[in-house]
TrEMBL record:
Cofactor(s) demanded: FAD
Alphabetized UniProt keyword annotations: FAD, Flavoprotein, Glycerol metabolism, Oxidoreductase
Enzyme Commission number(s) from the entry: 1.1.3.21
Gene Ontology molecular function terms on file: glycerol-3-phosphate dehydrogenase (quinone) activity; glycerol-3-phosphate oxidase activity
Alpha-glycerophosphate oxidase C-terminal domain location: 409-534
InterPro entries in the cross-refs: DAO_C, DAO_C_sf, FAD-dep_OxRdtase, FAD/NAD-bd_sf, G3P_DH_FAD-dep
Protein name: Alpha-glycerophosphate oxidase
Similarity comment: Belongs to the FAD-dependent glycerol-3-phosphate dehydrogenase family.
EC top class, as a word: oxidoreductase
Domain FAD dependent oxidoreductase intervals: 22-350
GO biological process entries: glycerol metabolic process; glycerol-3-phosphate catabolic process
Reactions catalysed according to its record: sn-glycerol 3-phosphate + O2 = dihydroxyacetone phosphate + H2O2
Length: 565
């Protein structure tokens, strides 16, 4: 594994300026990262620029499932189910440490969207289209057995359930592992680089970008034969720079997820269910790391996609659905919500068509200047999306230059951290490395399990960073090791990169995150030699994000209302 640090970031940026790339990608979410890996593995000289941190937009704010799009069946989108569904096994095999198979229950009720027959047929079709292996294919339960399996599901009107397999993922880390592999192969990657303009040749063909380094404040130019715009919710902004934002546009919808302690929401199965409001929406409730998270909403968003807010209406909607769907020990209120996240989905709408005709498929647009833009789609389909657009670039370069066309190489390409022999040998590797952490590094079992699950085959490098005694930085041993690994190998530039996206602590262990945020900021301040203004800026960034994540304003509104009424 090659280094992937601030030093790499600086050298990558300089190397991009010193040559003409075959391909430059704007956007470091899962789509852009997948494109970088596909292109570099085909021997294209590839660069990637991300305006903020990798996966800081939509790619860290999903339902965190590599799933096959079961609801596509309701729309008769057979091709999409087949393509996206069959990708799940590929993602799992290439990165089993960040992709976990789990049983999903789909309960059906009197007067619900699904019934016993439609559920059975639908899941059968789903299994076949998604090429699900026999050991993971669906089975049906009657109401009694459904409640035996998950006693917290509402019993009234329950007819039964279907049980099938989906794959839970850490979306931010999946994006990072794709990027690290691309970097290992030679792709030049840099975060916190904002594209401020586009470059054109004498024939008005796009040939590069103007950028600003948001850390050093330096500006410059990068030249490339082809440029791909994979900026997710910002795709239209780049198209506007190119004067090509016509025809189809993005329609942004906001999705909200809430995190509740497992003692308050003690389901033991993942549940996919109809909302009880007859609004044709479905939700997921998923146990993870001692918590249960539930979502999502689907409302139009027209403001800045950078930090879409979580409102009292969003929280009320989700909690009302949970309280009506589950017989929980106590009625859930906003006070029970420990954290949450909100992101926008960039869907595609054609001018002159109604919102009901919005497409959830991925699409590629090529402008007169040659700028390629890609939008839409699902996290699960990132590899196929990358394959499609790189296929077009590779064919164009094959005709226009001395590049020799190569087909995609990524179907069996192991991602960073995935060197465990594939999904077949993952549990054997997992048990061995957990034992290593317990015996040789004095870890508790749950500590070792979390490290192995998070870092996969890179866990040995993290183990070696574990201090033998308490650190002077006031950080627990594990945080010390993970933070230093992040600084050395995961391009952690801001404290929020570690606290939110590298460790997920702001989402799934927020009380611990609050206890270490100041030591993390202090340590990084010394590591990067920040002045007081920079340190304060970083502190403000963490606190602002924390206010959004722990829903401070929403809880205040709720408590004020409760007091007044």
């Amino acid at each position: 594994m090659s280094e992937f640090s601030d030093k790499t970031r600086s050298s990558n940026l300089q190397n991009m300026q010193d040559q003409v790339l075959d391909l430059l990608i704007i956007g470091g979410g899962i789509t852009g990262s997948g494109i970088a890996l596909d292109a570099q593995s085909r021997n294209l000289k590839t660069g990637l620029l991300e305006m903020r941190d990798f996966a800081s937009g939509t790619s860290s704010r999903s339902t965190k499932l590599v799933h096959g799009g079961l609801r596509y069946l309701k729309q008769a989108a057979v091709k999409e189910v087949h393509e996206v569904g069959s990708e799940r096994a590929i993602v799992y095999n290439n990165a089993p440490h960040v992709t976990t198979p789990l049983k999903m229950m789909l309960p059906f009720y009197e007067d619900g969207t699904f019934g016993p027959f439609t559920t059975a047929i639908g899941l059968d079709v789903y299994d076949r289209l998604a090429e699900v292996k026999h050991s993971e294919r669906k089975y049906m339960l009657n109401s009694h057995d459904t409640l035996e399996r998950e006693p917290y599901i509402k019993a009234e009107g329950l007819k039964g359930s279907g049980v099938y397999v989906e794959y839970r993922t850490d979306d931010a880390r999946l994006t990072l592992e794709v990027l690290k592999k691309a970097n290992d192969l030679g792709a030049l990657v840099a975060n916190y680089i904002k594209v401020t303009g586009l470059l054109y040749d004498a024939d008005d063909k796009i040939c590069g970008v103007i950028f600003k380094d948001l850390i050093t404040e330096k500006t410059g130019e990068i030249h490339a034969k082809k440029v791909i715009n994979a900026t997710g919710p910002w795709v239209d902004n780049i198209r506007e720079m190119d004067h090509s934002n016509t025809g189809k546009h993005l329609h942004l919808t906001k999705g909200v997820h809430l995190v509740i302690d497992h003692d308050k929401f003690p389901i033991s199965n993942s549940i996919y269910f109809d909302t009880p409001f007859h609004d044709d929406r479905m939700m997921f409730a998923i146990p993870r790391e001692g918590k249960t998270y539930i979502g999502t909403t689907d409302t139009t968003w027209t403001k800045d996609p950078k930090e879409p807010s979580i409102t009292a209406t969003d929280v009320t909607y989700i909690l009302a659905a949970a309280n009506q769907m589950f017989d929980l020990p106590e009625f859930l209120t906003p006070e029970d919500v420990e954290s949450g996240w909100s992101g926008v989905r960039p869907l595609i709408q054609e001018e002159g068509k109604s919102p009901s005709e919005i497409s959830r498929k991925d699409e590629i647009f090529q402008s007169k200047s040659g700028l390629l833009s890609i939008a839409g789609g699902k996290l699960t389909g990132y590899r196929k999306m990358a394959e499609k657009i790189v296929e077009r670039v590779a064919k164009q370069l094959d005709l226009e230059s001395d590049y020799e066309f190569l087909p995609t190489q990524t179907k069996d390409l192991t991602l960073s951290g995935g060197d465990v022999g594939g999904g077949k040998y993952w549990m054997e590797f997992f048990d061995k490395e957990v034992h290593e952490g317990i015996i040789n590094y004095d870890l508790e079992r749950d500590e070792a399990e979390k490290l192995v699950q998070r870092f996969g085959s890179n866990v040995r490098a993290v183990y070696k960073l574990l201090p033998e005694t308490k650190t002077k930085a006031r950080l627990p041993r594990i945080d010390w090791a993970m933070l230093n690994y992040g600084l050395q190998n995961e391009m952690v530039e801001h404290p929020i990169d570690y606290l939110l996206r590298r460790s997920s602590q702001m989402l799934f262990d927020i009380s611990h995150m609050k206890s270490i945020k100041t030591p993390v900021i202090d340590y990084m301040s010394k590591f990067y030699d920040w002045d007081e203004d920079t340190k304060q800026r970083m502190t403000d960034e963490v606190n602002q994000k924390l206010d959004l994540s722990d829903l401070k304003q929403v809880k205040k509104q709720y408590l004020d209302y409760k007091k007044d009424h």
